[in-house]
């Protein structure tokens, strides 16, 4: 399953297949037309290319396989036709993919397509006019020094040039995919294995298919490809995520690791917890996650990057936020916790009052902690505020009810049946308290 973003259309998959088919058919048709146009002029272009890569001072090239020459002409025409269509190709791919992508993913795709296309064209020019002539010149000089009479097959020369260009394009595509993913914040040390597995897998498959029957050559090219991509992309592969949010790993009663994220929706409230709010758990504040699709996307990215297992949100005035995000959190293997969703600044008198009660509320949560641990955390806060009057509110252990209280009161939430542990400690500290059942 995949995330359901706000801009995603609720349409059958057949609709997407039909759209893809129509876009693909248009591209193929235009590619064929442009390739045929180029075929009519490709001979003069190939003649120029042969003249550039010919290492001899005089003429030492010849055509030994006319049938292969026709193949080269058609391949060259198809390549020139594709280069002509690159702007349209970028537009079609991006237009089809954008509705189902987050902002960062869309930026990555567009960057990869544009930079990859520029590098593709630049690579062809440099390879044909600089790299290949240099290699042929070295080989030709060795032949002459050995006393051979140099005679070269133009088909073999052009085939070699195309093979070199193809391998360079594959390697550059892999490098740009990883580098642009890293610079756009999509790839980091935590998920680089996911990216590398797919990039290397696709490139290795294309190399094996391109050089079918030449196993030794294919393995050598795969090794070169893998090494080149890994070395160039290493800084981004080992990079830290810019969405990294420090959070303790907690073991619950079953020994399962849990990571909790608490989030505040400011939602135009009169006062809100500052970003510097001190808590032992991961905490983040959103301006208006209930109305901003960008902030929802940021939440999904944070949860995915940090592998949070439990998500709590409070302070929001929207009644539909939970239903909007619950399915996507489930897909990310994160549970939406509703115990504190009704906790709101409107129930308190000022920021200090709100902050103290928020800390107590966080401490009262008993899953994944035990009741004894929750009581211990609440008492640590109580010891620093002995003069306040406390309301010991008993709940069912699953839901926490919130209500408006006086400025000098704080609420201690405790599951039913465990209140005696807390009351005994409050009495030993000499704190005033009132027992209330939900």
Structure, described:
This protein is an alpha/beta fold and 438 residues long. It has three domains: 13-237, no CATH class; 243-335, no CATH class; 348-438, no CATH class. Helices cover 57% and strands 11% of the residues. The protein has 13 helices and eleven strands. The protein has helices spanning 13-39, 42-53, 66-84, 86-97, 103-145, 154-183, 192-210, 215-237, 293-306, 321-331, 351-364, 371-383, 419-429, and strands at 61-62, 152-153, 250-251, 257-258, 260-265, 282-286, 310-314, 335-337, 389-395, 409-415, 432-437. The strands form four sheets. A four-stranded parallel beta sheet has the order 6-5-7-8, with helices on one face. Strands 10-9-11 form a three-stranded parallel beta sheet. Strands 1-2 form a two-stranded parallel sheet. Helix 10 links the parallel strand 7 (310-314) and strand 8 (335-337). Helix 1 (13-39) packs antiparallel against helix 4 (86-97) and helix 5 (103-145) packs antiparallel against helix 6. It is elongated, with a radius of gyration of 32 Å. The mean pLDDT is 87.
């Amino acid at each position: 399953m995949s995330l359901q973003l706000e801009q995603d259309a609720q349409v059958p998959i057949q609709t997407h297949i039909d759209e893809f088919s129509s876009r693909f058919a248009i591209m193929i048709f235009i590619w064929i037309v442009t390739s045929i146009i180029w075929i009519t002029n490709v001979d003069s272009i190939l003649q120029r290319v042969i003249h550039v890569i010919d290492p001899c001072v005089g003429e030492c090239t010849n055509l030994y396989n006319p049938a292969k020459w026709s193949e080269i002409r058609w391949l060259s025409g198809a390549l020139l036709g594709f280069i002509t269509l690159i702007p349209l190709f970028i537009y079609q791919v991006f237009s089809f993919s954008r509705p189902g992508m987050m902002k960062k993913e869309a930026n990555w795709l567009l960057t990869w397509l544009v930079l990859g296309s520029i590098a593709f064209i630049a690579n062809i020019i440099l390879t044909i006019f600089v790299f290949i002539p240099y290699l042929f010149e070295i080989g030709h000089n060795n032949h002459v020094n050995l006393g051979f009479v140099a005679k070269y097959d133009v088909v073999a020369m052009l085939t070699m040039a195309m093979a070199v260009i193809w391998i360079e394009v594959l390697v550059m595509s892999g490098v740009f995919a990883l580098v642009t993913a890293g610079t756009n914040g999509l790839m980091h040390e935590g998920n680089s294995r996911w990216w590398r597995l797919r990039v290397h897998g696709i490139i290795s498959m294309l190399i094996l298919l391109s050089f079918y029957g030449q196993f030794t050559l294919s393995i050598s090219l795969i090794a070169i490809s893998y090494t080149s991509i890994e070395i160039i992309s290493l800084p981004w592969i080992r990079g830290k995520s810019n969405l990294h949010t420090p959070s303790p790993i907690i073991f619950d009663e079953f020994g399962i690791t849990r990571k909790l994220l608490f989030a505040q929706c400011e939602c135009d409230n009169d006062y809100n917890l500052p970003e510097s709010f001190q808590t032992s758990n991961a905490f983040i504040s959103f301006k208006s996650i209930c109305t901003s699709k960008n902030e929802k996307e940021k939440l999904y990215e944070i949860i995915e990057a940090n592998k949070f297992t439990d998500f709590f949100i409070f302070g929001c005035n929207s009644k539909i936020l939970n239903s909007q995000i619950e399915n996507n959190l489930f897909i990310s293997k994160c549970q939406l916790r509703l115990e504190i969703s009704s906790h709101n600044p409107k129930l308190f008198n000022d920021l200090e009052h709100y902050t103290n009660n928020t800390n107590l509320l966080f401490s009262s949560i008993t899953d994944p902690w035990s009741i004894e641990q929750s009581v211990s955390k609440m008492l640590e806060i109580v010891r620093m505020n002995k003069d306040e009057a406390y309301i010991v509110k008993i709940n069912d252990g699953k839901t926490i009810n919130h209500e408006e209280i006086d400025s000098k009161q704080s609420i201690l939430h405790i599951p039913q049946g465990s209140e005696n542990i807390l009351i005994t400690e409050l009495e030993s500290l000499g704190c005033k308290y009132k027992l209330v059942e939900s």
